[in-house]
Amino acid sequence: MCELLALSTSGPTRLTFSLHTLASRGGATGTSRDGWGVAFYQGEDVALFREPLAAGDSPLVRYLETQGPSTHLAISHIRHATRGAVSFSNTQPFVRELGGRTHVFAHNGDLPGIERRETLTLGAYRPVGQTDSEHAFCALMERLRPLWNGAEPPSLDARLTLLAAFAADLRALGPANFLYADGDTLFAHGHKRLQPDIGRAGPPGLWMLQRHCPPEEPATAREAGVAIVQEERVVLFIASVPLTDEAWQPLAEGELVAVRHGALLATRGIVTVAGTPSATK
């Protein structure tokens, strides 16, 4: 099954151990060997790296672990192909422009029948490859287009409302774990994935960890006689499975979270009222 990883921080940070751990799932220790990709936000644009081959065997992954760009927001995906050829065009994450910003999307799960879903039709945005994940992203971008009609990002509430409805449409088709970022905020939706202990799909589909990193050592450095104080950083990870032995928190089935600069801004979940799912804050 595909693997997802997102990083949001209060200050520029490099993906190191986490990228290596996720990549290993696309190599000898995992079954997801059909491609990998990572998008590093650089302001409102991204540095995008993708390859349609096993991440665990990639010299480029090893290079990025030590020489990759610092970022406040990154999204990574390890592919296990279930639809579409093993090719560059089918390798996530996918990227599109809207409102003068670069939007990034990565999805884990199968969405059979998405082409016939009336609420997930295409418009101005069209897939380059053949995956259901890219179709879902293009349908999302078409929905978002009316919101992004000003110089500033739409309100967080408006974006959450739209994304909650989009996530519900995906869940009706199949597993709908996804990461989406618009250059301002990271959004993550957890649904379900194959759970080895029960032998079938079930929650959680994503896990979250917030880490408070102390100032780097030494705490101060001097350049040209000026003291520079290293700032404390807050880092928030979201991944398909826990990547360390720390206390990762599972996202509830159908939970949607919004994250910015390492801080959790808002959540929306699914409750059942008289047998009918509805969104709640």
**Beta-strand proportion:** 35-45%
Shape: globular
| Side-by-side strand order of the widest sheet | 3-2-4-1-14-11-15
Level-1 CATH class name: Alpha Beta
| Integer count of domains | 1
- Provide the CATH superfamily: Aminohydrolase, N-terminal nucleophile (Ntn) domain
**Terminal CA distance:** 30 Å
Share of helix, binned: 10-25%
Low-confidence spans: 217-225, 271-281
Q: Which series of helices and strands comes N to C? A: EHEEHEEEHHEEEEEEEEEEEE
Radius of gyration (CA) equals 19 Å
Helix/strand-derived class?
Answer: alpha+beta
Give the name of the CATH architecture.
4-Layer Sandwich
Q: Per CATH, what is the topology?
A: Glutamine Phosphoribosylpyrophosphate, subunit 1, domain 1
Tell me the total number of β-strands.
18
Provide mean pLDDT, rounded. Answer: 84
Question: How many alpha or pi helices?
Answer: 4
Major pleated sheet:
7 strands, antiparallel
Summarize the helices and strands and which ones pair or pack.
Blueprint: E1 3-13, H1 17-24, E2 36-42, E3 45-51, H2 59-67, E4 71-78, E5 94-98, E6 101-108, H3 132-144, H4 156-171, E7 177-181, E8 186-190, E9 193-195, E10 200-202, E11 207-213, E12 220-223, E13 226-229, E14 233-239, E15 249-250, E16 255-260, E17 263-273, E18 276-280
Antiparallel strand pairs: 1-4, 1-14, 2-3, 2-4, 5-6, 6-7, 7-8, 8-16, 9-10, 11-14, 11-15, 12-13, 16-17, 17-18
Helix pairs in contact: 3-4
